[in-house]
Amino acid sequence: MNAQRGFAIWITGIPASGKTTITRELVKKLEARGIRAVVLESDEMRTILTPNPTYTPEERYQFYRALALIGALITRSNVNVIFDATANKRAYREYARSLIPHFIEVYVQCPLEVSMKRDPKGIYKSAAAGNTTTVPGLQTPYEPPLSPEITLQGQNAPEENADEITGKLLQLLYI
Fold this sequence. Notes:
Layout: E1 8-12, H1 19-32, E2 37-41, H2 42-49, H3 57-76, E3 80-84, H4 90-99, E4 103-109, H5 112-118, H6 123-128, E5 150-153, H7 158-171
Parallel strand pairs: 1-3, 1-4, 2-3, 4-5
Helix pairs in contact: 1-7, 3-4
């Protein structure tokens, strides 16, 4: 790993695509190698940055900008970061890339129907009931990465997906 900076991995995809499950497996695999990483999970970070979220475009812009800045500050301290966040616009993720030299974007590709069936947080059910109008990929556009370092299939085993990320970290000499 680079002696001066940590690396950052942004795991993106529509809600319920498998981001969090893959993140958990990745953390386990990294820890087994003696590598630690701070996970910046969007729902947890929202409790601090936007405690009463409205999910307006302006609020999302400010939230993801702050998330990227926090991640950049952490990596400057030689601590690795995993962003577990939809970040529905490419610009949010590209901003983080511009701040963090050792950056990997991971796109978890998953059909909307599969994500809707999973729906562990009830996001899609809430949308169907008319309680929300801002679900990325359903009611608000989700912009997939144009050239992510890794594209994973959300239907694959999380362990397999985490292995692919670990392989990329090894290839790039980040670990």
